[in-house]
């Protein structure tokens, strides 16, 4: 897998994938029957038109790395200081190049069109998927597939994620409560933002327990609550920051509405004011049932039934979720053996797994177009 090692040694951050995209473009251009387009500055799409007409299917790989110093100890470690492929996007890119290479020689057996999407900037919202979609490059696609490497599952085993929510949506907020400072012994002359903040934190606990339907996975975490400098001074401001995870659009809206109501009403009740920055990042991936079953059957056909398993929902967020705006999607995982988690400086990939990933991708694409 010299492609993967080359990309691993030369990682680039989100929106800066200049050399990676150039490299991918060169490899794609060296393959027969593949047309290359550049829908965004650092994204590449390879298009393979089969000999016979049919549907259009897309497989997506992401190409960006993360801002961290590699500590994996592999001989082909990152040559760039403080940049590392610790989410395995190098493996995704290499596998999809492998898939493109295999299919490019099978034009005569292909009914329809295949898009190989090499996407930039998965790791940094607003994410690269939105750019590619907005460029209009994918409007003819009938189905999207994606595959993410995941440690601590057997190397080369394909994990089919659940139908429906396969990852979570993440929203974040930053709240400044503006009170009125005073001497600690004269609370009646101030408006204490710590008391207001504490009331908000307590009330927010009721969103998951009292508003969201039981059993629907939802998390509201206040990760930051800062105010004041001295024991005998009432501060004039407090800052709270939170992360919110949901798995459906309805719950996502409900949670946002309830959080805003609680903040607005409690600050009012205490005579304080506030500034709120509520940011919605990626939605949840919603896997399609028919595409999931096809992926399961195709992967089992080439790898054997024992190498395909039901993977639990990913609690992380992924901008692959946006492709569902165009057509149904199916996102799956590929086990890469025991090791450190994604986004860890010691993250490694058992490269033996990647051949299975390519085999499964090729079969899924062929089966989708020929079904
Ligand atoms: Zn990641
Ligand atoms: Zn990733």
Describe the structure in your own words.
Mn(2+) binds at residues 87, 89, 123, 148, 343. Its cofactor is Mn(2+). Residues 174-269 form the Peptidase M20 dimerisation domain. This protein has 371 residues and is α/β, with parallel strands linked by helices. The protein has helices at 2-9, 18-29, 89-104, 128-134, 193-211, 249-269, 289-303, 352-370, and strands at residues 34-37, 44-49, 52-62, 111-119, 143-150, 158-160, 164-165, 169-178, 182-183, 219-227, 233-234, 237-246, 273-280, 286-287, 308-310, 329-335. The strands form 4 sheets. The protein has an 8-stranded mixed beta sheet, sandwiched between helices. Helix 7 crosses helix 8 (352-370). The longest helix has 21 residues, at 249-269. Residues 87, 123, 342-343 line the site of one zinc ion.
């Amino acid at each position: 897998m010299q492609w993967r090692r080359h990309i691993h040694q030369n990682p680039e951050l989100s929106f800066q994938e200049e050399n990676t995209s150039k490299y991918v473009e060169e490899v794609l251009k060296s393959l027969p029957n593949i047309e290359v387009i550049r829908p965004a500055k650092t994204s590449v799409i390879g298009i393979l038109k089969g000999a016979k007409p049919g549907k259009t299917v897309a497989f997506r790989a992401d190409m960006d790395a993360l801002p961290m110093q590699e500590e994996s100890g592999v001989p082909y470690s990152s040559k760039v200081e403080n940049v590392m492929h610790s989410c395995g996007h190098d493996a995704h890119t290499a596998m999809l190049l492998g898939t493109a290479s295999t299919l490019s020689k099978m034009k005569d057996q292909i009914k329809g069109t295949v898009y190989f999407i090499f996407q930039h900037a998965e790791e940094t919202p607003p994410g690269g998927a939105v750019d590619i979609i907005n460029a209009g490059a994918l409007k003819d696609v009938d189905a999207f597939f994606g595959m993410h490497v995941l440690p601590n599952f057997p190397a080369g085993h394909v994990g089919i994620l659940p139908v429906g929510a396969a990852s979570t949506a993440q929203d974040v907020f930053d709240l400044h409560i503006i009170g009125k400072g005073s001497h600690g012994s004269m609370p009646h002359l101030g408006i204490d933002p710590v008391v207001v903040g504490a009331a908000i934190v307590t009330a927010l606990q009721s969103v998951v327990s009292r508003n969201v339907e039981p059993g629907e996975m939802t998390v509201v975490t206040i990760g930051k609550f800062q105010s004041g400098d001295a024991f005998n001074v009432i501060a004039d401001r407090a800052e709270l920051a939170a992360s919110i995870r949901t798995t459906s659009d309805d719950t996502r809206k409900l949670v946002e509405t309830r959080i805003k109501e609680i903040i607005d009403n409690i600050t009012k009740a205490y005579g304080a004011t506030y500034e709120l920055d509520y940011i919605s990042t990626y939605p949840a991936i919603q896997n399609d049932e028919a595409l999931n079953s096809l992926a399961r059957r195709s992967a089992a056909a080439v790898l054997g039934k024992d190498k395909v398993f039901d993977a639990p929902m990913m609690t992380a967020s992924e901008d692959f979720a946006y492709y569902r705006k165009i057509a149904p999607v199916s996102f799956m995982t590929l086990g890469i053996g025991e090791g450190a988690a994604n986004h860890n400086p010691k993250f490694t990939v058992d490269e033996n797994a990647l051949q299975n990933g390519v085999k499964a991708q090729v079969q899924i694409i062929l089966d989708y177009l020929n079904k």
